[in-house]
Amino acid sequence: GAQIQGICSYFYGERHPENGVELNRCRINSLVDNPYFKDGKAAGQCRDGRASCEDCRSTRKDDVLSTHMTLCQKPWKCTRHWDSASSRLCADLHSEWFRIRRDFEETREDVEMRTLPPTAGGVRRIGKVDH
Question: Do residues 86 and 57 lie in contact, with contact meaning Cβ atoms separated by under 8 Å?
Answer without folding.
Answer: yes
